[in-house]
Amino acid sequence: MRVLFTTWAPGGHLIALVPLARAFLAAGHQVRVAVPGGCAAAVARAGLMPVPAGVLPRALGLPPAVARRSRGIWPADWPVRPGVLGPEQHGVLRALGDRRVAIAEAMAQGLVAYARCWQPELVVHDASTYAGTVAAAALGVPAVGQLCGSAALLRLDRQRLDGPPLPGYARLMRRYGADPAREPELWLDPCPPSLALPSPERRLPVRFVPYESPYEPPYEPPYEMPYESPYGAPRGAYEGAYDAVGEPSYDSTRRGPVPAPTRICAAWEDPAGPPEAVRAALRAAEARGVEVVRLGTAAVGPPPAGPLHRVLPGCRAVLHQGGGAAVLAAAVAGVPQLIVAPRPEQQLNGARVALTGAGAHTPAALLDGSPRTARAAGAQLARDLFALLEQPSYVVAARALREEARSMPGPEAAVVRLTARPEDIRKAPHTW
Asked: Which residues pair with 317 in a beta bridge?
């Protein structure tokens, strides 16, 4: 079977597709990955064969300005209740949707031309690469969308999320003789059911597999960290907990201190690095003797070698922004999460994690303000972080989430489903 994968960006977009593409190859199928020119090297490094699919204008490399300025607090279930969003929030979603349509327009001609030549029997694309659905519709073959850890399927290709297709997307589909109402027949979803919001789309659960380069040793699942009760440690062992952020000391005599040694991970993605309140909370943790392993722009000096999933074993908690890959890596590792979420989709993930009891969530918008406000916000974040370390309920919930995530079928099972007859894919049941 010929399977054409496609995405418009490296990083999380491509990484979400790699485990399934490798599973197809292992099962003896032919696989190609169609990407714009700037992504070909990343595809090759993943051990897959890239093929060209257009060139993206430089202006499409960044989200629109209105989305970068969006730092407010969004409702916890906004994808399934778009009516609660205001005009400014719908404007952000429309700008993001129009950008994805522009990316699809830049890719469509090259992607459809290659697809007509190679004649794939299935097209798999990441959720934001609308050109994949266009190519599948032009050829009359099934399209399958790959989600990358979001708690909801964000239909930015639709007006106001649940309306008709965006005008530009409808025009693009008609240009290739396709019905604008055409959608992927199935969505592959690595999000554990307890984190996912319900939706009418057909979704097939597929276990999250951390990305491994062919040049790294094989991935080994995180081992189970034995939980040490914090209540048997000496009284007053960690007094002065919040001296680093200028707040009163933590009363460790009332609930018990954090057992030593304790390690946490702080992973941040934004180029500007974490806000001052996050830095203050990490300093407070270190003032109590907690070892902080920093990744990404949270790192001070050279970051440690290895991706997040290799650092999490041995950590008692992780602080991050709420990106899908980080949420899933922590879920599979069974590590409690403190999510400080700047963007709407990250806030959504944070709220869902907090709802399961496996972590805590703070919208980053609450941390903006004067230096004095940042110090107070840092103290509150430190309290939230210490709660993850001290309250057994977070560990119990994180381990329950881990079992749920690990019990999902793997990419190999998805290959069996997707190599069925096209009509069987189109009749796939609603998963949840």
From this structure: 264
Residue 221 in this model has a pLDDT that exceeds 90: no
Higher pLDDT, 107 or 270: 107
pLDDT band at 146 (very low <50, low <70, confident <90, very high): very high
Q: Treating both helix axes as pointing N-terminal to C-terminal, what angle do 87-118 and 167-175 enclose, rounded to 10 degrees?
A: 10
Q: Which H or E run includes 284?
A: helix 276-287
The identity of residue 393, as a single letter, is S
Q: Buried b vs exposed e over 85-114: b needs ≥16 C-beta within 10 Å?
A: beeebeebbbbbbbbbbbbbbbbbebbbeb
Q: Is the pTM of this model over 0.70?
A: yes
Residue 304 neighbours by CB distance under 10 Å: 11
| Residue 410 identity | G
What is the gyration radius of the CA atoms in the chain, in angstroms?
22
Q: What is the pLDDT of residues 16-62, one digit of tens each?
A: 999 999 999 999 999 999 999 889 999 999 999 999 998 888 777 77
Distance CA 267, CA 228 (A): 24
How far is C-alpha 17 from the chain's CA centre? 13
Tokens at residue 317, please? Answer: 């908690």
Is the pLDDT at 208 greater than 90? The verdict is yes
98 pLDDT higher than 50? yes
Q: Tokens at residue 395, please? A: 């560990």
Give one DSSP letter per residue of 317-333, joined into a string: EEEE---HHHHHHHHHH
Q: What is the largest CA-CA distance in the chain?
A: 73
Q: Is the dihedral of CA 375, 381, 387, 389 positive or negative?
A: negative
The Cα-based distances of 322 to 96, 265, 331, 341, 364 in angstroms read 19, 14, 12, 6, 11
DSSP 8-class letter at 81: -
**Placement of tokens 């993930």 in the chain:** 349
Neighbouring CB atoms inside 10 A of 60's CB total 17
